[in-house]
Amino acid sequence: MTFEEKITLNGFRLTAPRKKILSILTNQKQPISFEEYSALDPLIDKSTFYRTMQSFEQAHIINGIESDEGKRYFELNETIHPHFICQHCHAITCLNPLPLISLEGYHVESIIFKGKCPVCSDS
């Protein structure tokens, strides 16, 4: 099922801003914040962006990740994979999927590691 189909199945209209947001998220290799998104699409305002992200999260189309400084980052909900948050530069990096630990009775939705990224570790 495509993300466009998920949008309409969840009762949302596939508007031009939603199509644009999906298009940009599809081309990202890492989760992005509003500031990073607005550099790619300066025409969308902050409230429209966050309302759309909230709708997409409720429909399980995207994943939201909160950094240590309280900024929200977003990515398409394709597969569960771990993320690394650098506690020095606050960068969020997608990690190659690791074998999930079997947690009987639990449903894992996110895995986050924290520490210093390679760049910050060297400095």
Which characteristics define this entry?
two-stranded antiparallel ribbon, globular, 123 residues
Overview of this structure, please?
This protein is of the alpha+beta class and 123 residues long. The strands form two sheets. It has a three-stranded mixed β-sheet with strand order 4-3-5, with no helix packed on it. Strands 1-2 form a two-stranded antiparallel sheet. The termini are far apart.
The share of residues in helices is: 25-40%
Strand order of the largest sheet: 4-3-5
Strand-residue proportion: 15-25%
Given helix and strand content, the structural type is alpha+beta
What letter string, H or E per element, gives the SSE order? HHHHEEEEEH
Radius of gyration: 16 Å
| Total strands | 5
Q: What is the general shape? A: globular
Tell me the span between the first and last alpha carbons: 44 Å
Largest sheet: 3 strands, mixed
Average pLDDT value? 87
- Uncertain residue ranges: none
Write the layout of secondary structure elements.
Layout: H1 3-9, H2 16-26, H3 34-40, H4 46-58, E1 62-66, E2 72-76, E3 82-86, E4 92-94, E5 111-115, H5 118-122
Parallel strand pairs: 3-5
Antiparallel strand pairs: 1-2, 3-4
Brief summary of the model shown:
With 123 residues, this protein is an alpha+beta fold.
